[in-house]
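Bumping my old thread because nobody answered last time. Still need a sequence for this structure:
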């Protein structure tokens, strides 16, 4: 400070807010000195030459109480000048990166957009929900379903390692269903097609519950055709089945691949659901663009259990029956081989009962890497000799 006047403005909060916070009146702040003034929208403090001398002379003439107020006011004004100068010279504050703890569980915090203007030196933390859900069935040596077992009755290996954490275990007989009905409509099944249609409609009527389950209908010959999309309306589903017309070659693998990739994988899944494909065919394929194993892989990615019902009622197992066995076994389903066409209805009834008598387990795998690696799943009971577990054989880890 020199003997010349100080003409640097200092902007602080409004006068009323400042006075209310400090409990100081304007008269007290000014101390009756006309050389200091407060303007309506900002505070502009002007100190004239010889301010220190003026204050000193006032000190000798004022009483003790007035002196104390004046000293306090002068000190407060100097403090405000200092704070204002610091605020104006400080650099702008950088935005603070959100804390990882603030990210809701199960959601992914995406990397920051490089064009968003954020600090590139701030690390971005990405979290994922690495959870595997498996639905499985337990039977005894005679094929009877067992529905009263507990979590401690099972051992699980994911990629030959015990899971890091078991998140949930349920004996579920009432989980929502997402069902795809795939019906072979090629020329090879023309003579028994009508009976298969009626059996499929009866299965849908007995299985799909309004406002709870969903199903869709796909017929296939050389190409898959959706005759009814996802719905809980059994009348619409029955109409979709009746819309099927036999004719042409057979592209079974393409149909399974399509149903899993374009329907089940894209279906909403807000809660734990069971996904199942009912595949009605003789197992022969002469038109597909994908292989059998590619179709199975897509079913595993969709977490779909595939139940196969063979329409070969010749009494002799053919190559197509082995194909159906392979698909069902790899996905945790079950193959059915009716001896006569009337047994198709019994196969549908067995599938319906099994879908209501399953277990569901959710776990966090150990040593999981986002490399797209195929990881095997093995679930066994403590008493391996008495009980058999049927589940999908594996799954694919995420790639990013």
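Sorry it took so long. Here it is:
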């Amino acid at each position: 400070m020199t003997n010349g006047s100080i003409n640097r403005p200092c902007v602080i909060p409004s006068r009323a807010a400042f006075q209310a916070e400090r409990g100081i009146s304007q008269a007290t702040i000014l101390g009756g000195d006309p050389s200091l003034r407060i303007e309506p929208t900002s505070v502009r403090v002007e100190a004239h030459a010889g301010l220190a001398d003026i204050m000193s002379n006032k000190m000798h003439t004022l009483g003790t109480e007035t002196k104390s107020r004046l000293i306090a006011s002068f000190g407060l004004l100097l403090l405000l000048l200092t704070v204002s100068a610091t605020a104006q010279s400080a650099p702008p504050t950088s935005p603070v990166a959100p804390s990882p703890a603030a990210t809701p569980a199960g959601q992914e915090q995406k990397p920051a957009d490089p064009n968003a203007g954020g600090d590139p030196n701030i690390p971005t933390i990405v979290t994922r929900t690495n959870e595997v859900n498996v639905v499985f069935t337990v039977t005894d040596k005679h094929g009877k379903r067992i529905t009263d077992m507990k979590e401690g009755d099972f051992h699980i290996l994911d990629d030959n390692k015990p899971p890091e954490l078991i998140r949930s275990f349920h004996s579920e007989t009432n989980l929502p269903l997402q069902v795809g009905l795939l019906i072979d409509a090629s020329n090879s099944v023309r003579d028994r097609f009508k009976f298969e249609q009626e059996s499929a409609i009866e299965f849908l009527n007995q299985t799909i519950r309004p406002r709870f389950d969903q199903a869709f209908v796909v017929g296939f010959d050389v190409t898959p055709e959706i005759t009814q999309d996802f719905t809980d309306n059994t009348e619409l589903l029955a109409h979709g089945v009746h819309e099927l017309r036999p004719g042409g070659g057979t592209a079974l693998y393409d149909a399974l691949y399509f149903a899993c990739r374009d329907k089940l994988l894209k279906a909403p899944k807000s809660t734990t659901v069971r996904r199942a494909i009912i595949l009605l065919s003789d197992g022969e394929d002469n038109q597909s663009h994908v292989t059998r194993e590619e179709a199975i892989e897509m079913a595993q990615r969709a977490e779909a259990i595939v139940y196969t019902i063979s329409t070969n009622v010749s009494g002799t197992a053919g190559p197509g029956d082995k194909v159906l066995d392979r698909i069902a076994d790899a996905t945790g389903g079950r193959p059915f081989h009716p001896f006569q066409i009337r047994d198709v209805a019994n196969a549908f009834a067995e599938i319906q009962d099994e879908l209501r008598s399953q277990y569901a387990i959710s776990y966090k795998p150990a040593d999981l890497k986002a490399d797209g690696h195929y990881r095997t799943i093995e679930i066994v009971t403590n008493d391996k000799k008495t009980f058999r577990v049927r589940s999908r054989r594996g799954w694919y880890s995420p790639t990013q």
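Residues 124 and 325 are 47 Å apart (CA to CA). Let me know if any region looks off to you.
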